Amino acid sequence: MTRKGKQSEHEITFFSRGGQGGVTSCLLLAQMAFVEGFKDVMSIPQIGAERRGAAIRAFLIVSNREIRKVCSVTKPDIVLVLDESMLDLPVIVDAIPKNNCRVIVNAENLEGDTRLSRDIELYTFPGTSIALEFDLMLEGSPLVNVPILGAFSKVTDLVSMDSVNAVLKDKWGSKAKRNIKAVELSYNKTLRAY
Predict the structure, then answer these.
(1) Less Cβ around it within 10 Å: N or C end of the chain?
(2) CATH code reported for the domain at 9-106+116-187
(3) Whether 59 contacts 43, CB under 8 Å
């Protein structure tokens, strides 16, 4: 399937904390983009001496052409933030473009100054409460790495819910049911902040 009428390449950055599943989310989204019909995808986790709770990044490039570079993303057109508290870190805020970018944040309601440019499109989704509702937990912590995929689908229209569901079913089989429900709820509850 050719993605007609859409930008031919997208660069995506994931910001999460160790243990939240940001790298897994990046890999799942890469699979979904391939199922959706993108010619080439490249998932690049930035992994070092991270520990649970430490800020980490993962990068994804999806393209209608062959990708001929292997590098981190420096000017993403889409940014996913799995933990709202990361917007308090200047290094994270500085890495988010000031314009021509869609930013999706796991937040019930962004209060006060986010320090993000008003020249971006900012979206929120209640990923933590959705993870709690569907018991998507790891060692007592809610996992928002799957719910954010529903928000991504709604905001970008780059991967359909059919592609999301197909990859989740392929990965978890009959156990994917809760994840699919969480993704659908996230899709429906994603809102534009500005």
Answers:
(1) N
(2) 3.40.920.10
(3) yes
